[in-house]
Amino acid sequence: MEDWKQAFQGWNLSWSSLFSNQQGEWWLVAQLLLIVGHLAPAWPAPDSLGVHWPAVMTLSGLIILAGGLGLAVQGFRALGPSLSPLPEPKQGAALVTTGVYAQCRHPLYRAVLVCSLGVTLAWGSLLHMALFVALVAVLTGKAHREERQLLQCCPNYAHYMTTTAAIVAHVPGLDWRAPRSG
Hints:
The mean pLDDT is 90. By secondary structure, this protein is mostly helical. It is globular, with a radius of gyration of 18 Å. The chain has helices at residues 2-7, 15-20, 25-37, 55-79, 107-123, 126-153, 157-163. The termini are far apart. It has a domain at 55-85 and 98-182.
């Protein structure tokens, strides 16, 4: 229980840092706005376009959404006290490279994208497809900023970047592995 209390401490969120974007707060705000946007109803509704959205697509989307939530739980648990919503690593946080972090460097971002894809498929909505694409852009940018900071504070991060997928393995734009030196 103590680990969970530590996970939600040390984020150093403040109004002044939000306005100055000291720790990449604008990436977090963009991410949260796009996630909340997924609560909107389908637009345009497939029926309004004369399209019958198959129930199997809705069910598949809900299953994918549930899988994404499961991935998020794994990511939260693996990070423990190192958890931060900001791209700036917490002071003194340990670099986690095991568990779900052995599969990709940003499993929480992957989880958000899987959830977004699930909602998009469940609704059959162009709005939600646009939100998904925007989330890809925002989370990719946020991950790049985070990695610049991790390279400065974690000596092993450069090697980790060569061996582990970024967000989704083998998907262009979501997997940028640093070339091995040597």
